[in-house]
Design brief:
By secondary structure, the protein is an alpha/beta fold. It has two domains: 2-126, Response regulator (Rossmann fold, 3-Layer(aba) Sandwich), CATH 3.40.50; 133-235, LytTr DNA-binding domain (OB fold (Dihydrolipoamide Acetyltransferase, E2P)), CATH 2.40.50. Helices cover 31% and strands 31% of the residues. The chain has helices at 11-21, 36-45, 62-69, 85-90, 103-123, 177-183, 224-235; strands at residues 2-7, 27-33, 50-54, 74-79, 95-98, 133-137, 144-148, 154-158, 161-166, 169-173, 189-193, 196-199, 203-207, 210-213, 220-221. It is elongated, with a radius of gyration of 20 Å. It starts with a strand and ends with a helix. The modification 4-aspartylphosphate is found at residue 54. Keywords: DNA-binding, Phosphoprotein. InterPro entries: CheY-like_superfamily, LytR-like, LytTR_DNA-bd_dom, Sig_transdc_resp-reg_receiver. Residues 3-114 form the Response regulatory domain.
Length: 239
């Protein structure tokens, strides 16, 4: 699955690309926006593999947007002006789509992006792969405990400690919520409140300002400062 985002200052252009993404099973549209600053915030807070990016936008150009990404995601440029093609390719974009974009040409660009992403995964050294466990300092001095990330339901801030909950069992760790948030992979975990970090795949529902987790009875609150990011992350899954 390729997580993608559409950035274009024209809503009509977004509507066309959004319709095309719905025809491609391998694409998961995370967000579509006319605001490039908002798009950069989305990319900074959740996994995005591919950006369909307009070049000429009033607030920030597509070229400057690519430079701001720092190579974090693949980019397919979309524009009505072919003279920007050379500069775009110099920035190592996957492909360049001229408007009006036709579906066959769109599909060809997506295939190129998929091939590029697969090659990157295949070439990635094992030591760079995300770890599937952590060692934590418990309340007992000198004791380290191994915790598998797949076992974590949620993490709760508790004054001088954080509590890591796994299948109803809570382990107290001598660290801060900020340190835990920085240590955990973004693809698997998300901070939703100053006192809560959740495992994303444990979410079973959202009710008002509460998150429901599978097989977890604890009340997980959504903080006002985190709600917009949470809803942006799940937006592509709402039907």
């Amino acid at each position: 699955m390729i997580n993608c985002i559409i950035v274009d200052d024209e809503q009509h252009a977004i509507d066309i690309l959004q319709h095309y993404t719905q025809q491609v099973p391998m694409l998961n549209l995370v967000a579509a926006t006319t605001n490039p600053i908002e798009a950069l915030q989305v990319i900074a807070t959740q996994p995005v593999d591919l950006v369909f990016l307009d070049i000429q936008m009033p607030e920030i150009s597509g070229i400057d947007f690519i430079k701001a990404l720092g190579g974090k995601t693949r980019v397919i440029l979309t524009t009505a002006y072919s003279e920007f093609a050379l500069e775009g390719y110099e920035l190592d974009v996957v492909d360049y789509l001229l408007k009006p974009v036709r579906l066959p040409r769109f599909l060809a660009a997506v295939q190129k992006a998929a091939k590029s992403l697969n090659e990157t995964i295949a070439d990635k050294p094992k030591e760079e792969e995300e770890e599937d466990y952590i060692f934590v300092k418990t309340e007992l001095k000198g004791k380290l405990l191994k915790i598998n990330l797949a076992d974590i339901d949620y993490i709760e801030g508790m004054k001088n400690y954080v509590g890591i909950s796994c299948a109803g069992k809570k382990t107290l760790v001598n660290t801060s919520m900020k340190e835990m948030e920085e240590r955990l992979p973004e693809r698997q975990f998300m901070r939703v409140h100053k006192s809560f970090i959740i495992a994303v795949d444990r979410i079973s529902g959202i009710e008002g300002n509460r998150i429901l987790l599978k097989n977890v009875s604890a009340e997980i609150l959504i903080g006002e400062n985190y709600k917009a990011i949470l809803m942006e992350r799940v937006k592509g899954r709402i039907i």
